[in-house]
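1st attempt posting a full record on here, be nice pls
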Amino acid sequence: MKNNIQLISYIDRFGKGTIPDFHSFLKKQFQPYIKGIHLLPFFSPIDGADAGYDPINHTEVDPRLGSWADVNNLSKDFDLTVDLIVNHISDKSKEFKSVQEFGSKSPYFDLFLTKNKVFPNGTTDQEIQKIFRPRPTSPFTLRKLDNGENHEFWTTFSENQIDIDIQSSLGKNYINSIVQTFSKSGVKMIRLDAIGFCIKKPGTSCFMLEETLNYISELTGTINSYGIKALAEIHTHYETQIEIAKRVDFIYDFALPPLILYTLYSKNAIRLKQWLAISPRNCITVLDTHDGIGVADVASLDDKPGMLSDSEIDELVEKIHINSNNTSKKATGNAASNLDIYQVNCSFYDALGKNDNLYLIARAIQFFCPGIPQVYYGGLLAAENDMDLLENTKVGRDINRPYFDFDQIEQMTSKKVVQSLLSLIQLRNSHPSFNGKFYMMKGEEGHLNMRWRKDKQWSEIDIDLITMKMEISYSDQLLNTNYFKP
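the predicted structure (as tokens):
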């Protein structure tokens, strides 16, 4: 993977076209800026219960978007990251339909995880309460099958997303078949979606166990054998993130978005500096994604303190709501049908009160932090919360999953804040210092200074958090000092 800016995008929401349309438009409008793409789920279907994260067929491109040949063509111009949805599959898949019809006699029955498989001797209330849930509903869904059998299937995310038994031979074959399909289509990196939930064990939280870490190592090895990198997607305590980073090629720096918001809200860089002193260097940095703004990655867990205290997180969340004029509150918590206990649903631009200066400062901090930066398509366009879509679907995360046609994208690209962001992206992509060594310069709490150096080439960002003034300087080919002007 090249150390350049990558775009996170859906095919059907960034241009409302096909993969060839998307490819052609990116080459025409954004190729100087975007060098890689995390292509959000394009499998059959893209419009299920969870915007593609509930695949019916994980090895089939939704024919409304294109084909694997189109994906392969896209990969020739952009480093391509795609999702391997490790934990679950749609209840409308042919595999689960077979289980629905034939029950335990189905050849696919062992592909799926049931309560009895994990708890053959029954469960206690205490064991159930220990199970970590991303949403405050039961981890099990009772299904009455056509042959009269009743089974409680494990459904971590929703009753339509049936968890896979990845330790069974059928589960292993299923995962391997997806990796093999990706390897034939030019994929450079596989994002391991929801992998923290894939191992269940009685008497535990069934989340990020030692066995999970071992499986991450094992699956990474399998993926690497095809010449592909593995990226783990896990929201958890920062110490666990550091441990996961040792087992995989890349890990998300999910602590960065809330810490950058906290830094700009409080005008105090101490928490961000503490994190950057210990954060994994083999990371992908993001501010926004197709999910909400996470807080679990900076929160305490059991007896482990977080990067932010409980009160600081409460203040952070409340400030997001205030800055968005409470639109984020309508999409988060009990207001949202897809309730997530560790995320605030809001565009990053709204989380900063639609303040162009603060938004560019936030992006500049991201680009100067260690790691390969990804920019969400809504973030690339400084998009606002989509209240119409939220009202229409009643799905909280849709507030930051807007649909734009190509004309709308061109209009939004002309905005001054987007033009400045594109210039900043071009600097991050082109300057050789970012392939060198990172330095966090010492300074007061209200001051943030970061530097990169490779040989004699250097770049530096200096931010006065009290006045919110930013200066970016960098060397040119003759080692003269230049300044970034938004």
